[in-house]
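[09:14] KT: can someone run the structure on this one? pasting the chain below
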Amino acid sequence: MENIEVVHQYAHMQGFSSSKENMYWSFTTALAKTTLTGTMKAQVEVHGGHLGDCDYHNGKIYASYLGNALPGHDWNDWTSFKLYVFDAEDLRVLDIINLDICDEYKRITCTPEDTRGFQAVDGVTIAPDPVSGEDRIFVACALYNGEKYSNQIILQFTMDGKYETEYHIPTGNTVFGIQNLDYDWENKEFWFTTYGASEPYQAKEMLFCVSHDFKEIKRKYHFATPYGLDCLGKEGFWASCHTGVRFDCGGVAYRCTEDLFETPMNQNQIKEMLGK
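[09:31] RB: done, structure tokens below
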């Protein structure tokens, strides 16, 4: 099975995205660029926070970012919610976009009136606005556990970061919400990945395909690819596997078709399939 592996990273893989010639990898505190055969081309470190999923679009890489918690606070008491925009050629930072709406969501999270359970942001992709067809940034929210937080939440922003609207997808609660988000431009579908259930009330599926307007869950699979998913249209997908150990992490992107998702698989089974 065709695959690419990146090794010797400080922290675990959060997501990846490909262009016609390169793959871009988010490793929590670093963004890396390789060829599609795995040759390292560039890497930059990001300090003071946590990179999440990333997406390549028109010569730029968009990655979600969380500011580290203050000393003495819980590790996930994030101090800021941003998008980093990198140049896809040399990985220099072109822009940092503050997601101000997320500060408001954090202020009310887990209060009696809160129905979101907002914890952070993670999955990110560029896709058409469901109505106008113009390019927009879509950012998926990380969620707290809780039976009442039963909707995945995706936020829509203009390309310069102005908040427009949000979408709720009734999958049932999942651990930390959506991990990766991507748009299939050929089939006009969104895909997103989650971790496996840790509570009886949580969704048993881990991979979801939804309509371009988020109104329909079209397909869902008990298939684990929470460290990255990249839609390639008729050519299938790059799916993910985490490797290594803490402070010496790695990640694999492997090519597959949707047929593979029909076989329930966890990360250990996928590692065995890949021989990792």
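[09:33] KT: thanks! The CA atoms of residues 14 and 227 lie 5 Å apart.
[09:34] RB: yep, looked fine to me
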